[in-house]
Amino acid sequence: MSECADDSTGSFASTYSRKVPISMRHRFRFTAALLATGLLVAGCGDAPKKATKATDEYPTSIDLKKGFDPNANFTYGYVQYASSWDPIESVTGGDFTFFAPVYDRLLQQDEDGKVEPMLATAFTPAADLASMTLKLREGLTFSDGTPFDATAVQFNLDRARAKNSKISGELYQITSVEVVDPLTVKINVNGGLGSLATGLTGRAGMMVSPAAAQAGIIQTEPVGAGAYVTTEIVPGDHVSYKKTDGYWEPGAQKVATMTYKLITDDNTRYNALMAGELDGASLNPDQLASAEKEGLAVITKPSAIFVYLALNTSKGQLGDPEVRKALNMAIDRKAISVGMYDGHCTPQIQPFPETSPGYSKKIGDGLDVFPYDPKAAKKILEEKGVKDLEITSVSPNVTIYTKFGEVIQAQLKEVGITVNVKSVPAAQVVQDFSIDKSVEATSSVFTGINDPDALSGRYLQPKALFNPGGAEYPELMKYAAEGAAVLDPAERSKAYEKMMDAWVDSPPHMLPVCMVHLAAAFQTNVSGVSQTASGAADLRDVAVAKK
């Protein structure tokens, strides 16, 4: 099985690329064996239903320990680098990890996904659900000294929803932003208020200095109102941070400095952590058992993140929903969950986790709706006249996603479809699939905000970034709009259940495979970290004790 096409981790990566622990070597041989025998790509009907160790047997957080060193440095290894330092130029939710230290948001989510104040101290929806009012913290400035006030918030929100913004779909519901007074902002919406608060906890809610944005430096030099500022940026390698002077919440600055390193290869990242070069790192879920056995502190949690196959519906017969139904039935979701994720990826056809108001309890995992049945899939394709179909699919050059693309390639081959897989950096995936529209497919990962409406803005709307074929789903979008418009989770669920019924009747161009249980591991002297429902590890309160 090939590794990532682009090794951008430099000498740091080469130092540890060959130090693969025995337990991990066994894991990779196991996956390779599955590929070789066809068990992973063809199922054989006997894949285990769950992993040998369930996710809920691992903790979701490491509580803060007393006696941490306030002068410590925290070094973290992550799977991808920021696609841009400007939140409105961001093309992947994975940018959040590098953004979070420098860009505070208007609102934030706790470990369980509950929306809480951050730069805004209160958020109040109007009785008619036509607007939301934000009250802002007083006396704050951006790291360049520019005041943080209602005018700055208006500037940021208008900028994020502008036509040239790559995240405009996350604020599609906003019609205007009003400055009520220096510390009060009124956001007017045309539906979608139920999802707006969650949207403001992500990139769309990140506040940048208006002065820095107007000067054109944000793309390469972040200027925010966060707990840290950057001191060194080496694109594609690492970023160093130090504490922001006079930060409004000093309790969130438990380490003096931080270094975030890009390490795309799962083995390299794991071994760097084992060698003590990192204090923490994101892990692939199938590394959890090995990390725990080696004495590291591990955390994991089911998330809103999922892996999927997406298609450009303007390319040949990929625009036919019956063809997409066949492709759904050609994918062995259970085998992918077990063979690639050790069961830490819930196989299902829905794009929402069970905890989401978007999840249809009636459909459940949907593995009986779109069962793995390559014979039936092949028959549908033959009836539709699909013969000798050859497509190109791009995957992020992160080990697990490269492998995912290769497994999809092998499974679709079983029904007569040839997939040429290209492994490229995450930003290039977006460029090839969404912007240039030069490839037919992408096997990738959804890393959006933890709200069902995020899917609509990024994938289902005709002009959505990840809908390069401009496919229209009027029935889907009708119910999606209804679900986004109300605040009551029960009412939202009713609308989204209808949306999922429409999804099944006419499958869209996105084919969810399994919901990823994201994981991270840390040295035993690290505390104050948690795995969030949105997927990213929450490092805001990270602390490091002296060894």
TrEMBL record:
InterPro entries in the record: Peptide/Ni-bd (IPR030678), SBP_5 (IPR039424), SBP_5_dom (IPR000914)
BP term (GO), one: peptide transport
GO molecular function term, any single one: peptide transmembrane transporter activity
Residues covered by the Solute-binding protein family domain: 114-454
Keywords on record: Signal
A GO-annotated cellular component: periplasmic space
Origin superkingdom: Bacteria
Pfam families, A to Z: SBP_bac_5
Keyword rRNA processing in annotation: no
Keyword Signal assigned: yes
Record protein name field: Peptide/nickel transport system substrate-binding protein
Taxonomic lineage: Bacteria, Bacillati, Actinomycetota, Actinomycetes, Geodermatophilales
